Amino acid sequence: MRVVVGENQALVREGILRVLERAGFEVAGVATDAPGVLRQVRTQRPDVLITDIRMPPDRTDDGLRAALEVRSAEPGIGVIVLSQFLEDRYAFELVGDHAEGVGYLLKEKVADPAVLVDAVRRVAAGDTALDPDVIARLVGRKRLGSPLDDLTPREHEVLALMAEGHSNIGIAEKLVVTVPAVERHVTGIFSKLGLNQAATSRHRRVLAVLRYLRG
């Protein structure tokens, strides 16, 4: 698996590169500013892009803007953005209208190599890898007249874990229940949210996540 990394902080960048290489990923390119990120993606055609949100030249949301451009132009490339702070707006902009192949992680979590490696594998497979703290912040917003009001507390728990990118097996392990129990909850969620039975299970999961995040 080939990865391009965009990070202007040397210590953070070296840590990410070391984790990726030890996990067996190929670091196809490295950039220290947003224009460099776009150049590396165009020339290297990676499977996944990992980029900080705040990068030169402006050191505001340049990295996010580059990630959004990649998401629009190259939907087959998985994108993970790293943030030092919880930013609702950044998460919504990144997810956009589809949650496939996207990750949003807090930098403090990347200190755990397993978190980053798992996120890279998820987004490369077209799944989501959203930080649990980000999910908690987004779903904790006040909502009025949402179809999510019809979900049971357990269904809310299952949907939150779906939003983080967990499979049914992963959800079962987190909640210490059986996989068939999780499947029943997922079916109930799809039904209550009015998600088309004709759509694939994976597509319906993405739609459920988007409805959950947007409320």
From TrEMBL:
Residues 144-215 form the HTH luxR-type domain. Pfam families: GerE (PF00196), Response_reg (PF00072). The modification 4-aspartylphosphate is found at residue 52. Keywords: DNA-binding, Phosphoprotein, Transcription, Transcription regulation. CDD domains: LuxR_C_like, REC_NarL-like. Transmembrane segments: none annotated. Residues 2-122 form the Response regulatory domain. The keyword DNA-binding applies. It comes from the Bacteria. PANTHER family: TRANSCRIPTIONAL REGULATORY PROTEIN NARL-RELATED, TWO-COMPONENT RESPONSE REGULATOR. InterPro entries: CheY-like_superfamily, NreC/VraR/RcsB-like_REC, Sig_transdc_resp-reg_C-effctor, Sig_transdc_resp-reg_receiver, Tscrpt_reg_LuxR_C, WalR-like. This is Response regulator transcription factor.
